[in-house]
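Sequence decides. Our protein:
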Amino acid sequence: MDALQRQRILSAQRDAWRRHGYHPNALLWSSREVQEQRFRVLLEMSGIGAGESLLDVGCGFGDLASWLERQGVPVEYTGIDLSPELLEEGGRRFPDIRLCPGDLFDFNPMPESYDWVWLSGTLNRNLDDGGDYARSVIVRMFRVCRKGIAFNLLDARDSWTAGRWDLQSFQPSEIAALVEDWSDSHEIRDDYLKGDFSLVARKGRET
C-alpha cells in the first residue's frame, strides 16, 4: 500500500467515524447484523478454540473479541488497524484487549506468531491496484499463523458488487488457487450473504 492509498483509507475512515461514532456504519458495515454474520461464518468454518491466540487484521473497534467471548470462545486477542480514532474508541470500550496501529506489514509479526489470523471486511475497498495488496495481505497472514487463516472478500460473480467502482471484488476460484499450493486444506462458503464469500485455509507447507 502506498502513501496515497493509505491516506485515502484514513480519510474515508475518519469521515465515517465523525458521522457515526461507535457504530458499525463507522466501519463501513451496513449493519451490526451483517458484521456479526460474517464473524459467525468465520467462527463456524475455522473452529477456533477458547484460549487460542488470534490476530484480527483491520480490527476497527475490536468488536470481534467481545463477540467471540459472548459465543463462549474467549481468545487471546490482538487487533491491528490503520485508524487511530477507531483504536482509541476500542481501547476505551474494551480495555482488556490488545490493539495496535498500522497494517499487517507495519505490525510485521514473526512467522507463526498466532494460532489464527482473521480478516473481516478489511479488503473491500478498491485501491486501483488490481487486488495486489489484498493478495499480499492474504499471503502474509498465512505466514504469521500456526493453524490457519479465515477471511471474507466481496464476490466478483455478483454483478452489482463487481460493478461498483469503489469496491474490490474477487473470483473465489482465484483466491482458492492462491492458497491451495501452501495449505493442507481450504474451504469456501458463499451461502450467507449476497456478493460475499469466506475462505478458511489451514496450515500446510511453507510459503
Remarks:
- Strands lie at 53-57, 76-81, 98-101, 114-119, 145-155, 169-170, 183-189, 196-203.
- The chain has one domain: 36-203.
- DSSP finds eight helices and eight strands in the chain.
- The mean pLDDT is 93.
